[in-house]
Amino acid sequence: MAIIGSISNNQSLIKGTDAHDDQYHSELKNEWTLVWSMDNTGSVATPTLKDYGEMTTSLSGVNYTRPQNWPKSHGMASSGSLALNNIGNGDGWARLIFTSVNHPYRMYAMSNRYDGSDNATSIIIRTLFSSRGDWSAAQRMAINTAYRYEPCCGSSCRIGTISVVEHNNNNTETHDIPTFGEGFHVWLNGMFWGNIDSTSNYGGLMNLIDGHSGSSGGNTGDKLLIYLDTYYPKANDYEDIIGGGRTGNHQDPSRGKHLTWSSSTSTAVGGNLKYIALTNDQFQSDDWDDHGYQHGPSGSNDGYIQLDLGSGNAIEADFTFAIGYFGGNHCANSNYIKGSNDGSSWTTLAEWNRHNAGGSGAHTNTSRQTVFSGQDFADGSGNFKKGYSQGYLMGQQGGHCYSNTVNNVEKWIPLKKNAGAFRYWRIGGTGWNTNDGIYAGNNRQLLTNWALMRKKENLDLRGGFTMPFTNVQDADAAGVPDGLYWFISPDGLKEQCFVAIFDEITGEPANSGSRWMLVASNNAFDRKIPNSTTRNNSRYRLDRSGATPAGSRLGIPNPDADYIIGKFITEFKFKWCKIHGWGYNTISETNNVHSNDCPVFKYNERQSLTCTWQCGGRNDQTPNDQYPNPLYSVTRRADVKISGGSGLSTYANYFVVDAVAMDSGLNANTNQSTVGGAGVSNSDGDPSNGCVMGHGDGENYSEGWYEASQTPFNCHGYTTWVR
Question: For residue 513, which phi and psi values (nearest 5 degrees)?
Answer without folding.
Answer: 140, -140
